[in-house]
User: Which sequence fits this backbone?
């Protein structure tokens, strides 16, 4: 899958022929499961095209309304927020962008190279990725120190009464 342009919303939904930054243009490898999902979406698109006839909006986008019209750029964000609000058992502070940060954190925890993560998420500046990385590492370091201190204290029985 290749991301090579953006969609914006003004008085209408517009396709721009470039991305926000050069690093935003990227090529993602897909898993077999993702390929299968995209094939199913393509099959559904063909059914919808037949169902809507001349009222179907043709485009090369994968994710769109049943009639082929494009989602507004904030469609997923609003939809995600609605799902969170409708499910009080979920932490209500979770945002769609927060999932992106969590993904970066998971990759850091798994030991992936920070430069590779930067390229994968499309950060123009490595410092943007490093800020997230530093927060994750800071939290990990504090936990490691806590565990180390506990191990030291419990491995040696210090007599604190003298």
Assistant:
């Amino acid at each position: 899958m290749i991301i090579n342009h953006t969609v914006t919303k003004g008085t209408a939904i517009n396709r721009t022929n470039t991305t926000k930054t050069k690093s935003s243009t990227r090529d993602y490898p897909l898993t077999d499961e993702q390929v299968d999902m995209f094939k199913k979406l393509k099959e559904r698109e063909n059914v919808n095209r037949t169902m809507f006839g001349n009222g179907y909006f043709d485009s090369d986008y994968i994710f769109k309304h049943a009639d082929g019209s494009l989602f507004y750029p904030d469609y997923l964000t609003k939809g995600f927020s609605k799902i969170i609000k409708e499910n009080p058992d979920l932490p209500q502070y979770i945002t769609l962008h927060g999932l992106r940060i969590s993904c970066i954190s998971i990759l850091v925890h798994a030991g992936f190279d920070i430069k590779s993560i930067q390229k994968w998420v499309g950060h123009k500046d490595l410092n943007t990725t490093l800020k997230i990385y530093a927060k994750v590492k800071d939290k990990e370091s504090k936990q490691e120190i806590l565990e180390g201190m506990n191990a030291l204290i419990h491995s040696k029985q210090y007599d604190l009464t003298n």
